[in-house]
């Protein structure tokens, strides 16, 4: 009897394990078709959106006041997924595994855009050519005049004559341009301690001497040394000193033809300059391997004297330290000279933050997706997504949105941003609201506190004495991706960033140049010359980007 | 006739086979079914064609790998790191198992065993974060200790001088306890009369280890060594991805990481599959060769 019982138990165990294993393999039976009501007018449909921006995050629950308002207006429920990690990796993964959202939205550049273009060519996206004109807000955002020319020709204007992509966040007017104020920022108290006026730092030599003075001062914070120059995750954005050496990624060879700056003497000088910073202990050697939490910890502990990044990130990261150490706020260094630019030239900015949105072939209701996106791109949708529900979170005063004090205080007190996200604001929907009209239609950043706005204004005055100019010329970086040799060339070109980092850690200048030259040879071997010939032919007679500051 | 006898035996022991079934199913689903995907190494992978419908590309991606200017460096790095792990890391669990076997205080022995197993269950991301914290030049306790003793702070992470020590040391620390279990089991299976006979012959503890314990675990060690050679072309993806930085890339770039970065990050699936297949092919050759040598030299072999 006991033997029989043992047999029964063993058999049951075996069956259970097998069932569990097979169930696990089957993904639990949930498919992409769940949750959709599929009504002809979109009512009751739940659409999934992948917000492919690394580090983005959403509310605690799918339903928020903002998403509820969207549902009331369109009848469509939304569920947003977020990317934690590489955006390029995410694009490649979703199409390879066919784990596709209804709507994808992500960066309009680099490997992310290349992945989307590949997906379009291979039938993974919905062809919107005959549909887009029925949705005026979407059609406006992809009109030729509203898209940078090279990007229009490369992707937005059509792939093989068909339109697949919607385009967002291009400033609608000059007043809507979001200048992130990238630059070097020094702690005010440290600059005073070493006796240097941050605005007196103009040249690369000045910057080097300034960092050296900080190093030589042997400053400590809670017994730990203060590092002269640091950044955020994986070295973002310590490399922005490149504008001290060259204007942009593709430069004139002197005969009117273009070449990638990686092949120039200026790039070597830039590399060796940073190598010197590393060798002499002026640049945090952990900067390229650190995570954001570690970077933030260093800043919160007051251990970084000069930070290179955009100003909002610096203001956010240093908030706590500044609160407990008044007078230690980060202030702009410079403005630094720009290679190849006249001193009185406005700062040339490319528009970052631009977004490409597509509807995947697995979308359960294409018309509902377009209806949703068109609503979000309307002025009403724009204000709802950026500011919350009118009458609840904000109200119009003299025709402009103004935050309600109750919500302003709540959002201000919450340094995590969670309260705001739980209301449905900054949950990724702001990436799909058509052209950026934050000032022309909206009322600017109504949630920013006065101190922050004042700091940004001050930095703008210092770093942009001649104003800004939005780049509208052709970017050779977009054109080269259409060259027939791009498939073989791309893997080599993709390594330039990694190789630069390897070079600055090389044992000697010669070793650093060897690392650069080895990749140069590989790039040449994989079709660089033919690709550049293509670029030069395509751009003959066209205005090309010659100067660009990070943005 | 023979096969019907075999099936009768299988049926007689069906309960034991039932216990094996989940393992067999697991291996079938996760190790054998995906083998069909290897063909993608010979195809131009497209989203629409997938593994079976993409156009054939022949050896294009193998050529691309061998034409890649860093391919030889990547292969060299992989072999160096794996060899170091094998030569230094392989004897460590044996030594630990023998040392633990000599401990007579049961509670102490059990505590050490448990403590040595624990790191195996800690993921590499946690191990590397711990190392970053401990070894940081800025506030890391190790460097604080060095400074307090009058020394200069040492940059352990992202430094070629300390790279191999960190890789091998952390690998041993993480795996030594877990890998020692099988040797502990083998030692437990040694006939106690052999030890008693050795004692009567006047053998010291060391002599007993040398003449009884080591020969007793020799066969299992040889088999594990043969299996370990199969990993010579695989230096450890997670550990190397996390511990290698730009400063150590010249000695820390390995095949496993190259496969992932080219396949997932750059979207070159066919290329990544080709490199992975090359890696597996060499591993197979190594296993067969070492197995053959082991059979010739010691009569112990896997097959």
Automatic annotation (TrEMBL), chain A:
Keywords of the record: Cell membrane, Lipoprotein, Membrane, Palmitate, Signal
Taxonomy, superkingdom: Bacteria
InterPro entries assigned: Bact_solute-bd_prot1, SBP
Signal peptide: 1-24
Disulfide bond in keyword set: no
One Pfam family this sequence matches: SBP_bac_1
PANTHER family: ARABINOSE-BINDING PROTEIN-RELATED, POLYGALACTURONAN_RHAMNOGALACTURONAN-BINDING PROTEIN YTCQ
Name of the protein described by the UniProt record: ABC transporter substrate-binding protein
Upper lineage: Bacteria, Bacillati, Bacillota, Bacilli, Bacillales
Automatic annotation (TrEMBL), chain B:
Membrane topology designation: Multi-pass membrane protein
Protein localization: Cell membrane; Membrane
Keywords: Membrane, Transmembrane, Transmembrane helix, Transport
GO process terms (BP): transmembrane transport
Residues covered by the ABC transmembrane type-1 domain: 75-290
Predominant location: membrane
Gene Ontology cellular-component terms listed: plasma membrane
Pfam families reported in the protein's UniProt record: BPD_transp_1
InterPro entries: MetI-like (IPR000515), MetI-like_sf (IPR035906)
TM stretches of this protein: 15-35, 79-103, 115-135, 216-237, 271-294
Similarity-based family: Belongs to the binding-protein-dependent transport system permease family.
Name of protein: ABC transporter permease subunit
